């Protein structure tokens, strides 16, 4: 009788290969290395190591921009969907989400216009003014995300699902048949607030709006990347 081969156990290397074989997983891995390089670069006493780590950080930051080169399209597509689709979450949340994706799309689009400058291919005089405006849009998008998630956390929407009733049933029986859905878990909202709150230090420090150090920015990037990367990891394994 043929024997079924025993299933192989958990392989960290195989899991890592699966994770980095997808674009989202690879981008999160590079972001974690970038954040770690910044933390080491600003804390080490060795000038040579600091230079190497900060150079790696800058190169990884540029590399990651290639992954989001056309991400502005998805943001504007989301805006188009929100405009043409009735919302079930309320007017305030809908407007905030609409503005959030509009600002995020504008940030990504403006950032793309400066990629040749950062590559050293074509230097332009309007680099800093344009990146300043781009980071403002990024800051606004992250802030709106934090506010929207906080609103949903404390004032969750409670949609109702009508149960099956006969066409001859009275309005009172239909009203009794509407049962509120169980409230969604709060941890995803809390996690999104933490992720976007940490990422706020990136455009905030560029604009001078958030008084944070390079070490705090790096640690915030590590935390937000681990939290965001965990969802990608769980979905791919």
UniProtKB/TrEMBL annotation:
<dbReference type="GO" id="GO:0005778">
    <property type="term" value="C:peroxisomal membrane"/>
</dbReference>
<protein>
    <submittedName>
        <fullName>Microbody (Peroxisome) proliferation protein peroxin 11B (Eurofung)</fullName>
    </submittedName>
</protein>
<keyword id="KW-0472">Membrane</keyword>
<dbReference type="Pfam" id="PF05648">
    <property type="entry name" value="PEX11"/>
</dbReference>
<feature type="region of interest" description="Disordered">
    <location>
        <begin position="161"/>
        <end position="188"/>
    </location>
</feature>
<dbReference type="GO" id="GO:0016559">
    <property type="term" value="P:peroxisome fission"/>
</dbReference>
<dbReference type="InterPro" id="IPR008733">
    <property type="entry name" value="PEX11"/>
</dbReference>
<keyword id="KW-0962">Peroxisome biogenesis</keyword>
<keyword id="KW-0576">Peroxisome</keyword>
